[in-house]
Amino acid sequence: MHKHILKLVTYFSFCLIAFTSFSQTHQKIYDIIEAVSAERIQKDIQTLADFGTRNTFSDTLSNTRGIGAARRWIKSEFQSISKDCNHCLEVFYQKDFVTKEGNRRVPHDAWVVNVVAIQKGTKYPNRYIIMSGDIDSRASDTMDFTTDAPGANDNASGMAGTIEAARVLSKYKFENSIIYVGLSGEEQGLFGGAGLAKYAQEKGWNIIGVLNNDMIGNIKGVDGVIDNRTFRIFSEPVPPTETERERQLRRFYGGEVDGISRQLARYIHKTTKTYMPEMNPMMVYRLDRFGRGGHHRPFNDLGFAGIRIMEAHENYTQQHQDIREENGIKYGDVIEHVNFDYAKKLTAVNAINMASLAAAPPQPNNVAIGGIVQPSVKFKWDKVDGAIGYKIYWRETTSPTWDYSRYVGDVSEFTLNGIVIDNYFFGIASVGENGFESVVVFPNKIFRD
């Protein structure tokens, strides 16, 4: 009798878990969206713009002007947030020295200083999801470190969004760690990101992904389009660190657009459409804008997953421009061009994705796939700590998103009957007891039986 009751309880528990993982909606995520404040973001953008210039090589001694004043203020904001959450953030400077020699955009030797705030996870403290904004700004001439360069949208918007995400998410506890960081030296050569990526590698951080926010406040494009719902997610197709063997195998088994950064982009797309369906996330299959770069790239260079989140419609008259008016056109990155409600939306996009990833178990390891010339697809993978089950995803080979899925329970192998392997791409995600999922893992091994 007791055995039957135990089986019944186990069955209903499984059904509840399956329902939770299928529904993928959590009230906490909606609460996070509501907690993001456009007013606080506006206040922080104004404060950053009021430092006059935040050029990486500008004044470091003044308390009211230059990069030094800006980074000290950012650090004090993180420390204030930490105080409010019972010192839940570890706040510190991470810095590297750059020299004029060999760097054509460096006017003089200087320290490139990042401001880092770490919110440690309760279960996986060495697994990190990172949100970054850039501290620095620039005038028309990147070597000019004295002219006013308020950088309201580029990139006080991303920095303010990062601070606001810290305010909101610090009210919660997560299984994985979250890092909020202001990076410097972006305009001169991505120095801050390169320094932190190297630091992360030396410290042995297990990075889930990097969400680089660079310009999240403009809705009026130079193309004449006004759009307060669409935003871009840039991601490279495969890591630059892949081996020659991995490159050769892709010719036969696929995966040309299924690297770790692309999977992170798909995760963000899915989470956003689930919780903020009014938004239009636009995945761009490119490392960054045409011929240009962003602070996620140094992480990509070392094999870490990283993407860039930014506005869909840029206005080039407001980027990297001295403040002036010519032929009726007002140039300059000033605060009146920033849409704070839009910056709030993109900050919320970041916050809910970081919360979801920080609450999820690690992704499955050693995902293998089989089923060549068979009417079914077979999978094997290594289980991971914290997962109560796994979910198989698949899509047509031309689809940008994972369109079909099946929860298969707490198993390490499964056969998906009635589906021909040739016609789809497949992946596996871990599912936690709380229903949150890891990033999908594209198979990295082939087996025959």
From TrEMBL:
InterPro entries noted in UniProt: FN3_dom, FN3_sf, Ig-like_fold, M28_fam, Peptidase_M28
Coiled coil regions in record: none
Top-level taxon of the source organism: Bacteria
Entry keywords, A to Z: Hydrolase, Metalloprotease, Protease, Secreted, Signal
Localization per record: Secreted
CDD domains: FN3 (cd00063)
Main localization (coarse): secreted
The Peptidase M28 domain, residue ranges: 114-353
Key word Ribonucleoprotein present: no
The UniProt record lists the keyword Hydrolase: yes
Signal peptide: 1-23
PANTHER family assigned to the protein according to its UniProt record, in alphabetical order: METALLOPEPTIDASE M28 FAMILY MEMBER (PTHR12147), PEPTIDASE M28 DOMAIN-CONTAINING PROTEIN (PTHR12147:SF26)
The protein, known as: M28 family peptidase
